[in-house]
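Same chain as my last thread, 337 residues:
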Amino acid sequence: MAKYRIDIIENPNEIVKYLHIGINIPIWPELHEYILSDLQYFKAKSLLLKEDRNILGHVLVYSVDTETLYFGYFGVYNHNRDTIESLLKELINYMKINDYNKIRGPINIPAVIFGYGFMVEGSKESLFIAKPVNPSIYQKSFLDKGFSIVNEIVTWAANPMVRFNPWKSKDYDFTDYEFVYPENVDDFNENYKEPLLLMHQKNLPPTALITPNVVDVIDNYIQFIFDYGYNFMIFFIKHKPTNKFVASGVYLPNPFRKNKKGIFDSTYVFTWVVESEYRRKGIAFLMYGAISLLLWEKKVRFGSGMISSYNKANTELAIKKLAGVMTRKHILVEYNI
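reply #2:
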């Protein structure tokens, strides 16, 4: 290709102008506050591949330590293979010049909105929160340059979602359990934030924590849920005899899909956690059933979630019971020196 150069953009307000190059999910102005929050926290930078005055491609880079360089929003105009490889070469050079040992991505911060991974060919391509769409030429280029797959994320979907009242179950007695959720952001911060973080830290493996330092950016994520969704989308199961939270879940609103009345009608299951001593007691059945009733009341009928390659065996059976079907697959890649 012709001679090109790399411009490095560090001002978050400028970076926002170029993110659309590397993502199919709309960068609405009303979403800028959530994007800027993460850009500022991670001190992210944009690498612009340019030929003369023309922008050919873009990639966002950021880090939380001196070991790993994370990237996101990787994209070039017209998805040209030579241009992809030129931008990829510059990404690797940036890693080496700045003494990182590995690159991992794509993780498009904030991931609760813009997601992560390169989409695998054959996946559903409709617009959905946290589910980026890209031609297969991207992952092929990365794998050909020595990147390896470190995580595979499969998306399931149900339309409509199964709805049931768990307290009427003939198989389980949930008398000792209560489904609870915060009233607002202040209530979450005061009474639910610490239990949520502790529960996820204790029960989720490091491989499940896609976004680095999620503890420090959780306020941004929670604000998005309250702004676009409902308070019950962050919920807990309380064991009444001990007054302890024994399970929790987080659902995301999908503002990119709405019904005829202009109300969002789909949701994305972001996380589910059950304390180890309370597993195999039907708690997941209780969690799903309780929130399904609330979602249906709000006319939210389409549900989507994900299975990581690290916990596939534990969740596939449950998804089949809920009439879920596999619709998408994304991969995270990594490059090591």
